[in-house]
Structure formats: C-alpha cells, structure tokens
C-alpha cells in the first residue's frame, strides 16, 4: 500500500485561477473504472490520509480499496454485516482504519478494516441514510428515514442527543472546527446545529421553498458550504456571514452530490444529468465536465491531491462493475507532456529539441500502461494528449506480427519513441509522378528498440511500421505535428494509393465510442488519376 507521505509527494502545483484549472484538466483528464467487488456502489469516502477509498453498495456490502504507487485502486476488504442497502459510508477523521456505514436495515456498523470478520453493530429505530464522524473523531452522527438526527459516542455507541425534524432531512456535514453541523433539509432550507449538544441555532433559506436541499459539503478551510438541491442548482455560501456568494446553474436535473477539493479551489457537482460539473469556487466558472452514461450517486475528492472518486449508474464495462471510477492525472507522464507542450508553444519548432525531449524520457510501463489498450485484431492508436491543438501524442500498441500499411503523413512531422519491444521500419520513395505504375522503391530498413527515437516526414518518403516479433507485444509513443485525420495508403506492388481516415481506439485511457481499426478506408483512387 502507498504511504501517506508518498501520496503527498505526488501533489501537483497549486490551482490559483480558473485558467490554471482549465489548463490542468486539459492535460489531465483520465477516467479509470475499478471493480470494488460489489454491485451498484453509491456511497464513497476517503480515509484521512488518502490511502484507502471505501464504498457502500445496494448489495448490502461495504468494500475498501487501497491506493498503490500509480494511484490505482485494489480492493482489499469486503465487509458483509448489513441485511439491506448501504446508503452511506464515512471514514474516521483521524483513524485511517476505522469506518462507519449506515444502512436501511436499521443499523449502523463500525468496521476496523484490519479485521475483516469482526465489526461493531448498532441497532437503530429506523432505516438509516446518512452517517458522519465529528472532526475530533469522538462523536458519530447518523440520520434516518424518519427525519431524525442522532449523535452517539463513538467509543461506547451510547446515544447522546437526538433531534426530530418537521421536514425532510438529508445530507449533513461537520464544520472543520467540530462546533457546528450543517444539515440539508426540505423546503429549500439548511439547518445549523451547535455540537455536540445538537442545538438548532440557525435556519437558512438556501433554495426556493418548492425544492429540497439534498446534498451538502463544507470546504476543508471551513470558509464555505455548498448546497445541492432538487431545483438543479448548487449554491455556494460564505460560512462567516451565511451569504450566498454564487449559484452554479449549468445542470438541468436535481443535484445529488457535491464535494470540495482538498485545496478548497474546486467543487464537483454530480446530478441526474449524466455528468459531473467541476467548477472554480472563486468565480463559479466551469473548468471541466465529466460526461457519463448514468446519473451520479456520490463524489469524493482525495484529501491531498486532485483525484476525484465518483459512483454512478449506467452500462459500465465488466471491470467497472462496482460502479466506482477515478478521475485523475496521468502524473508520471506529465513531465514529458509538459516539456513537449512547451516546445510546441511557438509556431517554429526545432525538430532536434523534440527528439532530445523524447530521448530524455526513459520508458516505464507504470507511466503509460493505462493508455496501452490492445486489440487482438489490429494494432491500436490511443490518444494521450492534443497539445492545445498543436499536435497529437499517441500510444500505439502492436500485437505480435502486426503492421501498418505503407503510408504518408499528410505533411505532418512524425516522432516515434519505443516504449516496449521492437518495431521494424521500412522506408520507400514516393512514386515519381501520379501516373507512375509499378513497385514502390525501398530506400531503407531499420529496427527500433526500447527508448530509441526516430523522425519521419513526407520529405523523407513513405514508410511501414511493424512488430517483427511473433510472440511479444510492442508499444510505441508517437507525436504528430500538426495532427491529421486522413492520410494516403500505398500498394507496394502497384503504387496505387487510397485515402484513409485515421481513428483512435481510445482517448485518455477510455475506449472511444466508435473504436475502429487504425486506418479505415473511406475512398479509393488510382495513382493514374
């Protein structure tokens, strides 16, 4: 398991403006799905040091995954103690191994995830929907379907205070000081309680009286509270004055989940819109949108870095069967991406500088494996970065014996870096003229090995790339500037050419909606005219 210190060391630069955030997500927008060994996960919680992520599911189980050095999740704990759906989970605020879960089976369970077969169960009067720990870790608050809020001693599980609301009671969250609890309620209100006495000290009309406040989050610095409601709005409030600073109104359907990032600069808003809206808190502007295939149940930012976990419905692939995904950065390739972007900042680019940057990077499968998506039928082209429109950076994956057609590059500069295995390049001269008929003239042949770099352009002719191995895969990194979506394929025997569309098998680690073979012939024409 990755240590908390190692995860802290992975933190990227501070977001200081909406422009910073937009640029960050332009370069870092990978979504990865994980099997948490549960079905229909819809509640999430990070532990205090960010080394574990817990989820509660509709199949009555609680699962916990650890975070490895590549920020991947691996399920290490599955708790089976509830008899009905687990509606919320909450890690202890200071103990990274202590987890609470609330279920509609009329129970709250406290788990020590180091001991999978034992847990402490609290039987309650009604089905439970919400649970959270106080910042000091001494108290546990839970809410039930009968709109009652309870505070218990986290060690003895004895009930200290209870409050019965006259309206619908939904998500609640502690202020970081531990002195107050903010509760989203019906009729557009937020109720504020003094803790641990559970004394109602203020009621705020946060949204219209015809709507219900459903989701609520307090920023880690305690300066703001966000409220998501059934009116499709998310409001952001100043805690000191309890004045609404702004409303986020880009969604069309009820908000179901809100969360502040660890640095308090970003807010994620999930709804029934089949998307997650990520906004810059200080001005409310959208900095990124995650489009999904279902409604969002829960969102949770990592406590130390810009990594967002979310649970959603929809038709997920088999490896996503738990419904838990991470939206994060491909950090280990980020230095190379940043360097290449800087080289293409100006209109005039030095070819030798690009080659030097690619040579300086030493291939590590941990860096690029999430982009290396293979297909048993053809080699694949997997988009990594678009370089602000200046180029395409692509990972190509080659099964044994796979090769390209002979092709040109539509006037583009082509850089190739070997990441794994070998590639054989065969070069050919362009036909002398459009009327030429006969075999293409071969001009050279070479084999590239790991970490070697080559350059190709139309001024140097045509080429074909192939994996010469009959048993091993190959992976290569390609940079094309400018990016192109069509090229010519050539028949080696006759010099005939065909216009071909160039496609992507995946984008940013996720299969494309219309994943296809790399070169899809869409038009045919003879070199004779």
From TrEMBL:
Its EC number is 1.13.11.20. The keyword Iron applies. Its cofactor is Fe cation. There is a cross-link at residues 414-480 (3'-(S-cysteinyl)-tyrosine (Cys-Tyr)). The keyword Zinc does not apply. It catalyses: L-cysteine + O2 = 3-sulfino-L-alanine + H(+). Pathway: Organosulfur biosynthesis; taurine biosynthesis; hypotaurine from L-cysteine: step 1/2. One of its GO terms (biological process) is taurine biosynthetic process. It holds the Pfam family WD40. InterPro entries: CDO_1 (IPR010300), RmlC-like_jellyroll (IPR014710), RmlC_Cupin_sf (IPR011051), Tex1/THOC3 (IPR040132), WD40/YVTN_repeat-like_dom_sf (IPR015943), WD40_repeat_CS (IPR019775), WD40_repeat_dom_sf (IPR036322), WD40_rpt (IPR001680). WD repeats lie at residues 79-121. It comes from the Eukaryota. Fe cation binds at residues 407, 409, 463. GO terms for molecular function: cysteine dioxygenase activity; ferrous iron binding. GO terms for cellular component: THO complex part of transcription export complex. Keywords: Dioxygenase, Iron, Metal-binding, Oxidoreductase, Repeat, Thioether bond, WD repeat. SUPFAM superfamilies: RmlC-like cupins, WD40 repeat-like. PANTHER family: THO COMPLEX SUBUNIT 3, THO COMPLEX SUBUNIT 3 THO3. Belongs to the THOC3 family. Belongs to the cysteine dioxygenase family. This is cysteine dioxygenase. It comes from Ancylostoma ceylanicum.
